[in-house]
Design a protein that fits this description.
170 residues, mainly alpha, 7 helices
């Protein structure tokens, strides 16, 4: 339950959420597509995929899909109802079911989301560069101020004390 709550929060975060969601979709679609393509029965493939999803939200969604398929429902129906994945993923799964190429469609979804993850990571890296420059510049400024402010205070104190001492002594 705790992991489910943490994964739910992680998926709702502004920048990390979409990235984490796309990575999870890529992981489970690629795993499931590979297993189905290798001839593993769909219920067994979904059970294995649910265990390796890496995100409790997607694990529970795949377990719901597993139970629905066992009861005679389609794969895409529970996906649409869960609202965990994008509608396009559910629609592509539905097309894959109808055409009999579910494994190929799942691998296409994984490839598409892999590309989206690459684009998101590249854009995050381009946003990270200015932030790093600001942080490094601020760090250097703090170090310089930490070195020079005491020196300036000492010099000001000496020059002020020397003028006062000369006036009182004369």
């Amino acid at each position: 339950t705790g992991r489910f709550i943490l994964d739910s929060i992680k998926l709702k975060l502004p920048v990390i959420g979409p990235l984490s969601g796309k990575i999870a979709v890529t992981r489970w679609t690629r795993t499931l597509g590979t297993l189905i393509g290798a001839g593993v029965p769909i219920l067994d493939a979904i059970a294995v995929t649910a265990e390796t999803a890496g995100n409790e939200v997607y694990t529970r969604m795949l377990n719901n899909v597993h139970n629905s398929i066992r009861q005679g429902d389609t794969f895409a129906g529970p996906l649409k109802q869960s609202k965990t994945v994008d509608l396009i993923v559910a629609n592509m799964v539905a097309v894959g079911e109808e055409t009999g190429d579910l494994d190929k469609m799942l691998l296409k979804i994984a490839d598409e989301f892999d590309e989206q993850v690459d684009v998101l990571v590249a854009s995050l890296m381009s946003l990270l560069e200015p932030v790093m420059i600001i942080v490094l510049g601020s760090s250097v400024m703090v170090i310089v101020l930490a070195i020079f402010l005491p020196m300036i205070q000492i010099i000001t104190g000496l020059s002020g004390g020397g003028a006062a001492g000369g006036a009182s002594g004369g």
